[in-house]
Write a structure and sequence with these properties.
This protein is α/β, with parallel strands linked by helices and 256 residues long. It has one domain: Rossmann fold, CATH 3.40.50. The chain contains 9 helices and 10 strands. The strands form 2 sheets. The protein has a 6-stranded mixed beta sheet, sandwiched between helices. A hairpin with a 2-residue loop joins strand 9 and strand 10. The mean pLDDT is 91. Bound molecules: adenosine-5'-triphosphate. Keywords: ATP-binding, Nucleotide-binding. This is ABC-2 type transport system ATP-binding protein. GO terms for molecular function: ATP binding; ATP hydrolysis activity.
């Protein structure tokens, strides 16, 4: 079986300004990988390239053994991609949206309904199935999107901030869902800013800083290297930030 992901010398610039400086990475199938880094480090940019949404890059990117630049459609058929923010078709109900997404993947209606119903029930969204989505909260929209990207049972799932907008109970549900998916051999590559979640559910953690991989390993390996015992501390150490209370103070009072 080929690696789920293979990046060799991935470089990307926006208008001549480099943002990714030659990423090398291999991810084995069945792993859940947390992709972390400061704002603007290049996480979304990487995810968009891996998902076949941006082919203007240098280097080589293979997703499930497929060259993403040469054959983005084959990649898209086998992956699920959860964007950081997406416009849902507000005038549709979730059921109609799933029918649309499922049919784009060539799925038969009974299978779409069955998969959607099971995912919705798991995420506690079934009661909304036939309501228009224009009144949905951010968390509800996130659950609809999550359901829609898993409908066709993809082998590899990319997620940009999947826990955005979810309440505490839903975060637990989604974390369990991700774990169950990897137990079934799926590979998950996701970005998040919620360090304690990344710490607990990732088989591997990749820290991107200023477009370069600053750390890559299991939580235990990274901690041993940085003599730290939590991801927040490690993140701060490796990205040049300061722990709470150590940095410059924000002056709340006017000087005048
Ligand atoms: N379409 C674009 N045009 C020009 N510059 C862009 C574009 N998209 C992203 N950038 C720049 O590329 C860099 C990386 O952005 P990216 O969104 O990949 O970071 P990120 O790690 O996902 O950040 P965040 O954690 O804030 O979501 C930033 O400097 C950003 O300003």
């Amino acid at each position: 079986m080929p690696p789920a992901l293979e990046l060799r010398g991935l470089r990307k610039s926006y208008y001549q300004k480099p943002v990714l400086f030659g990423l090398d990475l291999t991810v084995a199938p069945g792993q859940i990988v947390g992709y972390i880094g400061p704002n603007g480090a290049g996480k979304t940019t990487t995810l968009r390239i891996l998902g076949g949404l941006d082919n203007r890059f240098d280097g080589e990117v293979r997703v499930l053994g497929i060259d993403v630049r040469k054959d983005p459609l084959s990649v898209k058929r086998r992956i699920g991609y959860l964007p950081e923010s997406a416009d849902l078709y507000d005038v549709l109900t979730p059921a109609e949206f799933y029918d649309l997404v499922g049919s784009l993947h060539g799925m038969e209606e009974p299978r779409i309904r069955d998969r959607a119903a099971r995912l919705e029930e798991y995420l506690g969204l079934s009661y909304r199935r036939n309501q228009r989505m224009d009144s949905f909260s951010k968390g509800m929209r996130q659950k609809v999107l999550l359901t829609s990207i898993l409908l066709h049972d993809p082998d590899l799932i990319f997620m940009d901030e999947p826990l955005n907008g979810l309440d505490a109970n839903s975060v637990i549900r989604v974390k369990d869902l991700l774990r169950q998916l990897t137990e079934r051999g799926k590979t998950i590559f996701y970005s998040s800013h919620i360090m304690d979640v990344v710490e607990r559910i990732s088989d591997r953690i990749i820290l991107l800083n200023d477009g370069r991989i600053a750390a890559n390993g299991t939580f235990a390996e990274l901690n041993a290297r940085a003599h730290s015992d939590n991801l927040e501390h490690l993140f701060t150490q490796l990205t040049g930030g300061r722990a709470g209370g150590e940095g410059p103070r924000f002056n709340l009072d006017s000087d005048e």
